[in-house]
Amino acid sequence: MKTLSKLTVIAVVFFFVSCKQNPAEAPEHKAMVEKHKEMETSHEAMAQEHNSMKDDHQQMADAHKAIENDSIHMVTEKNHLALLSKHSELIENHKVLIENHAALETKHASGELTLEQMTSEHESMKVEHENMEKEHEGIAGEHKRITEEDQKMMKEDQEKATEENSDKK
């Protein structure tokens, strides 16, 4: 009888363990996976915008080469370069966040983390992602302001040069 009781207990435990839900099938895990996809899409957009900013900077630097000893343009170029550096750092930090988020998904799917641990870490990462998106928006706005300011100065310089050339005639 003891053997039958032990076998029954073992069978019941085995049954409950084998019926345990796969953590990757939990709705919370699936929601986290969707959020991860959104983060990756956001990161791709940030990286593309960063490349565009670098292109704008190169165009700005090339245009400034035609202007001799113009400290105002050089300051604008320096500010833009500092902004690019800040944006590059943001992109790298966001990339690390995405990698950590992917590791979180893996740990939860393998059962290494409980649902509560995963949810807590995910919420923290989600807030960090949102903060990075806000920072990106600020940088993009500053980039636009600097670019517009530089274009305005370049136009004024061209108009001034045109006036000087017509006065010489």
How would you describe this protein?
- The chain is mainly α and 169 residues long.
- The protein contains 4 helices and no strands.
- The protein has helices at 2-18, 27-65, 71-109, 115-168.
- It is rod-shaped, with a radius of gyration of 28 Å.
Question: Termini distance?
Answer: 118 Å
- Say how many strands there are: 0
Determine the number of helices (DSSP H or I, runs of at least 4 residues).
Answer: 4
| Shape type | rod-shaped
What's a quick, concise take on this entry?
The chain has 169 residues and is an all-alpha fold.
Task: Summarize this structure as a short list of keywords or feature phrases.
4 helices, 169 residues, mainly alpha, 88% helix
Walk me through the topology.
Blueprint: H1 2-18, H2 27-65, H3 71-109, H4 115-168
